[in-house]
Amino acid sequence: MKLHVGCAMWTHAAWSGRHLPHPLAPRERLRAYAGWCNAVEGNTTFYATPAPETVRSWAEQTGPDFRFVLKLPRTITHERRLGDVAGPLRDFLSVIEPLGPRAHALWIQLPASFTPGDLDTLAGFLRRLPTQYTYAVEVRHRAFFEDERWRTRLEQVLGQVGGPGGAGGPGGSGGAEWIAFDTTVLFATPPSSEAEREAWSKKPRLPRRTRALTGHPVVRYIGRDDPRLTVAGWQPWLGTVSAWLREGRSPTFFIHTPDNANALMLARRFHEEVRKRVPELEPLAEPVPAEQPTLF
């Protein structure tokens, strides 16, 4: 039984010398991060398909159990809006092949302008995807959260996706997951820092959703710069994630804060708090200290 936790990136200036050794060569940064967390969001792939040697380096720096949730390039999701994308999709899938099982889920983040009227396009796109990967879809249009008809229809579209494990649900990996993107804590009270004000201007204000559709739920939880508020805000998730684990699901939980200064420690703390509720959960490995001990 494992819970995978992680952050939105594996390198951050606020972590250098504090949590991660400094200096670190670029090809060692992911390895150091992987000593703290066992998953990471692949946000950089949204902006461009990485070079093959870059992906090979990612594989070399991580163990086979490490999880990347990789965002499909924006050319596919935002510019071409899932239409006429065979070429860029083929290029992307070819490049990430060296990751093997580390490519835990391919993340289809759709723009807020993607409406219920576009669901047939999504269904057609998902039907054409190779079945050796699992998929996770993120929608931001409020109709999917506020109208039962469209929520049900989206779940039906996601449930029709094939997968390496057959049918979806606790025991299988078939079906595409609906990513839970929780910004409720961020918007609970007015922002108190420049980073929080920027997050308010960019993040969607959506209701919390805790329903898992498959055996591999993915949560993106956005907290606050004050760690106490972040911890207080994730309390409802502790019970949800614990229940998923007991049902045989394999969740991945990502911690964001507007400045991300404490995200590494918070991700590990979330894992520890779930483990208090589910003692059989396998612990995370101990991270390497930022300051390497000397012999003298």
UniProtKB/TrEMBL annotation:
Signal peptide: none annotated. SUPFAM superfamilies: TM1631-like. Pfam families: DUF72. Transmembrane segments: none annotated. This is DUF72 domain-containing protein. It comes from Actinocrinis puniceicyclus.
